[in-house]
Amino acid sequence: MRALGPQTRSALLALGQRTRFAPGATIYSYGEPGASMLVIESGQVEISLTARSGRRSILNVMGSGETLGEIAMLDRHPRSADAIARTEVTGLVLHRPDVLGLLSRDPDAMLSLMAELCAKVRNASEMFAAQSNTSAAARLARCILRLGAKWGEPMADGSVRLTSTFSQSELGDFSGLARENVNRHLRSWIEEGIIVVDRDGITLADPDALRVLAEV
């Protein structure tokens, strides 16, 4: 949606039905039919997959202006992941006939949407590749850097303050690590002055050191 031109975006949003989800509410479930998409107006949505073993992997945390559910809506296949409201979420629900009708009249909008979908696929591919081919420390460092890039507030001293709080369990689900492993690395990085953790969340005190740990 962010890639669409202002006129196309406004026309598309005008077709939506406003909705609200309480924290913890299921927006979409893996495997269910998909005939609509959601444009997030406010709040955060966690995108995740749960293996048969019960192991959960967080693929993304999405926020204002982002869309979810468009892949299943467009290809008529079942939902490819769970979407859970991490906070209270408000958004606009757009249904397949309305979206396709508008896109069919605007080839540039169709190409913009395709570019957004490709970016999502690339993001998921890079995440799984990192979990397969890098050390535990590198995976956690990459996870924190990704969160900092999306949810971070740059500070005057060069540090980056996460504006959202993420638990150690969530960091583990993001990076494919057990909570105990996350805790061990965080404690080590706190002692080295690489990060600061307090009741308000995480600050990337030395982003360059994290990039070295991330092997990027």
| Radius of gyration using CA atoms only | 18 Å
Characterize the overall form.
Answer: elongated
Widest β-sheet, arrangement of strands: 1-8-3-6
The count of DSSP E runs of length 2 or more, i.e. the number of strands, is: 12
Strand content: 25-35%
Please, what is the average pLDDT? Answer: 88
Give the helix tally: 8
Helix percent band: 40-55%
Main sheet attributes: strand count, strand direction, barrel closure = 4 strands, antiparallel
State the separation between the terminal residues, measured CA to CA.
Answer: 29 Å
Quickly give the structural class.
alpha+beta
What sequence of helices (H) and strands (E) makes up the elements? Answer: HEEEEEEHEEHHHEEHHEEH
| Low confidence ranges | none
Detailed description of the structure:
- The protein is of the alpha+beta class and 216 residues long.
- The chain has eight helices and twelve strands.
- The protein is elongated, with a radius of gyration of 18 Å.
- The two termini are 29 Å apart.
- The model has no long low-confidence stretch (mean pLDDT 88).
Keywords:
four-stranded antiparallel β-sheet, alpha+beta, 44% helix
What's the helix and strand layout?
Layout: H1 6-13, E1 17-21, E2 26-28, E3 36-42, E4 45-50, E5 56-62, E6 67-68, H2 70-75, E7 82-85, E8 89-95, H3 96-104, H4 107-133, H5 136-151, E9 152-154, E10 160-162, H6 168-175, H7 179-191, E11 195-198, E12 201-204, H8 207-214
Antiparallel strand pairs: 1-8, 2-7, 3-6, 3-8, 4-5, 4-7, 9-10, 10-12, 11-12
Helix pairs in contact: 5-6, 5-8, 6-7
